[in-house]
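[Amino acid chain]
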Amino acid sequence: MAIQQLHHVSVVVEDLEAAKAFFVELGMELEGEAPIEGPWVDRVNGLDGVRVDIAMMRTPDGHGRLELTKFHNPAVVSAEPKNALGNTLGLRSIMFAVDDIDATVAGLRANGAELVGEVVQYQDIYRLCYVRGPEGIIVSLAEELG
């Protein structure tokens, strides 16, 4: 038994429109949107009365997907602290390869994102950084050098 592929990563957000705009600015494309509810989604989530809206985003190469989920019911539970740092247990970031890290950071900052630390160079291989977007989502960016 072995996995076949990573299908998608799911992120729960309060402001679905802001999250979609952030990932579109990053270069992702909206694959589709749908309201989701019913007994099957209650059972798979282990929750009662689930009612959500989802937006499926995909990378330009078509291989990476990100599901943005807005809960209408039940109420969302906030993680603490809201703007957790990189050493907090759990999923901390999603990394994307970009062709121009400076232009990507500038575009995201113009849309309200914050640089977590600095853009740094790792040997002669990558320029790297972390950016915090809506809902405290941390996105890692990597520009391959050479």
Remarks:
- The chain has a mean pLDDT of 91.
- The two ends are 38 Å apart (CA to CA).
- The first strand starts at residue 9 and ends at 12.
